[in-house]
Specification:
With about 375 residues, the protein is an alpha+beta fold. The protein folds into three domains: about 110 residues, Acyl-CoA dehydrogenase/oxidase, N-terminal domain (Butyryl-Coa Dehydrogenase, subunit A, domain 1, Orthogonal Bundle), CATH 1.10.540; about 110 residues, Butyryl-CoA Dehydrogenase, subunit A, domain 2; about 140 residues, Butyryl-CoA Dehydrogenase, subunit A, domain 3, CATH 1.20.140. Helix content is about 50%, strand content about 15%. It has eleven helices and nine strands. The longest helix is centred in the middle third of the chain and has 37 residues. The mean pLDDT is about 95.
Length: about 375
Amino acid sequence: MQYRSSWMTEELDVFRDQFRKFLAKDLAPHAEKWRDQKMVDRSAWRGLGEMGALLPSVPEAYGGLGASFAYEAAVIEDLETVVPEVTTGYSVHSAIVAHYILNYGSEEQKRRWLPKMASGEFVGAIAMTEPGTGSDLQGVRTTARKQGNNYVINGQKTFITNGQAADLIIVVARTGEPGAKGISLIVLEAEGNDGFRRGRNLDKIGLHASDTSELFFDNAVAPPENLLGSEEGNGFVQLMQQLPQERLSLAVGAVASMERAIKLTADYTKERKAFGKPIIEFQNTAFKLAERKTEAMIARVFVDWCVERLVAGELDTVTASMAKWWTSQKQVETADECLQLHGGYGYMEEYPIARMFVDARIQKIYGGTNEIMKLLIARSL
């Protein structure tokens, strides 16, 4: 019996059928080029926008499809399966940045930015991490001070996904006292902003097509109407409210990656022969794949349940943390064992499993380290 996610609908089936064809025909052929240049072309963003794949869970009034997070989950799954080079940048842009603007932006902000993000004209990023501040967001040192008619932003960010491409950057900055209550979210528009500078497109061991950058703010300017929320000091609360969706997005991608790794490896072990027979006929191979297929199914059912909870507005931080740490851990383990079953060929970059192995590793770090996830879960005991 073929498993079907509980949140799938006939309408979503029709969308996904066309979307997968688009990915295979229009995006996948460029994947190697994007890995080499460490960045996805702008044409891909516009193509995703034309397909209705950007911001699907944003209301139609702001350029989206007016659908639920289920559409977002479907797009993430299909990207991860067909052209994973795009998944990380897409998730940040569509499932994260857009929802900060949707949930905390003024009507004017939403109408100004969201339609351009939905079309792919604008690419979004969120600048949280600093050289000395990762999971501890209360320690942010980048400042945004009112001077005259503007916020003047000073500081440095690093590991920022879409940092090279971004037109809109939500900057996590300190507008007040030390600690959580002094943090605000301010949208910086990159074009023509003299005090804003992009640093290196960082060299990573994986996710080679995802541009990841240092960002520098040296008296960068943002008008006061670019503050997200009605007043300063709400940034930390806003971040905490949106993290469950971010973490579930990572879990959705993790499950899709596990399923793809298992399918690729099953196909490979049926074709590859050793000692006169396909290696899948060796008990060790069959048992390893049986274990991983079982774990992938457990992960799939749990994450589908979490998607249902999120769509219903009921996904809590603890459950999202469980989904993020467990699926990312299993993604890394699955990629490792599947690479092993490829033998020496698994270590060659021309084989997808090699790229999946190095790409998976960051999943245990970004979006909140798995150690932080366990800490959050432990507090609920």
